[in-house]
Amino acid sequence: MDIKADSLYREMQMLAAQTKTELTPSVNLQTNPSRENFADMLSSAINGVNEMQLHGRELTNRFEMGDPNLSLADVMVAKEKAGIAFEATVQVRNKVMEAYNKIMQMPV
């Protein structure tokens, strides 16, 4: 399979655009939606990373078993996407923890 940088770039842009639209909060003046929205967003992001990792693992197993429909490039791209998504999730977690620690150290 020929890996095209343009198609990968377009896919990344599409995922970024999808993320931006998912993050747009709905306005509800009666309750505080930020807690639920943040929890849903965080849960969705973690589930997405988990699905990418499971997909990469599945492709790896299929390739190792000799699936003729898979190329090494397919497997490597899936594993790399999962790795990048995981690293991004870890970095977001680190930034959230850093912000939390700074807030907790603020004098009241």
Textual characterization of the structure:
With 108 residues, the chain is mainly α. The protein has a domain at 36-108. Helix content is 76%, strand content 0%. α2 (34-64) packs antiparallel against α3. The longest helix is centred in the C-terminal third of the chain and has 33 residues, at 72-104. The chain is elongated. The termini are far apart. Belongs to the FliE family. One of its GO terms (cellular component) is bacterial-type flagellum basal body.
Sum this structure up briefly.
This protein has 108 residues and is mainly alpha-helical. Helices cover 76% and strands 0% of the residues. Mean pLDDT is 80; it is low at 22-27.
Topology, element by element:
Blueprint: H1 5-22, H2 34-64, H3 72-104
Helix pairs in contact: 2-3
Report how far the terminal alpha carbons are from each other: 59 Å
**Percent range for β-strand residues:** under 5%
Low-confidence segments, given as residue ranges, are 22-27
CA radius of gyration is 19 Å
Structural class: mainly alpha
**How many strands, what sense, and barrel or not for the largest sheet?**
none
Number of helices: 3
